[in-house]
Amino acid sequence: MNNPIMIFNDQINNDIYLLRGRSKSAFHPIKRDIRKNGSSYRIRKNDRGLLTIQQPIGFKTKTDEKHIEVVEKLTNWLVTDDWTRLSFSDEPGRIYLAVLQEGIDLEKIAWLREGTLSFVAKETLGQQEIINVTSTTTTDNIVGQEKTPWIVEVTFTQNTSSFELTTNQGLYVLLGYQFIAGDNLVIKYDGREVLLNGHDLRSAVRLKTNYELLQPGTIDISASHDCTLTYDERFH
């Protein structure tokens, strides 16, 4: 059986190997604000916390110079300023948006080095899903366990003065603009971006939108022009 590998920031570090003992909760912690109301209790708020992932690692080195070289490559790989995708080959279908939380204390055992990487993850993702949307209302299924952001993309095949997308989940988009055949339009929930051929279009269009996260379950959806709705599965 092959040893598991860790992929971080779309890269693999071949200097290290994963040791047994990875630890993490089965799901993100939930902090509930519960208030007593007479003889009953009411949940006022649910806050989803960060998931901690502890992964022991090791590497081999016979000289101090090699030790320093491996550690430098390790920090170049793992120290990031923003959330980065983290995955393990023995956890198929799961991707964590994570950052390295702490430093690593390496224990020296002859020419072996061992320590534990500590990550915190803000999201647990699954597969990327794509729904093909047409002018005919269809019923599709949003998979996963948590609400999720989305991206709408359309390449116009003819000139038109508007684009409209409608759902029964509250998500609604209406853009007024003189689109021409070949134009590529991308609308993103994150950042409320509206891009036409890669350029920001928000100040140039008549825009009416209701930006709502997609909810797991069925969705009825249609659009004035064939397009795609893309999202990532999200889990507790």
Automatic annotation (TrEMBL):
Coiled coil: none annotated. InterPro entries: Dit_BPSPP_N, Siphovirus-type_tail_C, Siphovirus-type_tail_N. It holds the Pfam family SPP1_Dit. Residues 144-235 form the Siphovirus-type tail component C-terminal domain. It comes from the Bacteria. Residues 51-120 form the Siphovirus-type tail component RIFT-related domain. Signal peptide: none annotated. NCBIfam families: phi3626_gp14_N. This is Putative phage tail component, N-terminal domain-containing protein. It comes from Halolactibacillus halophilus. The lineage of its organism: Bacteria, Bacillati, Bacillota, Bacilli, Bacillales.
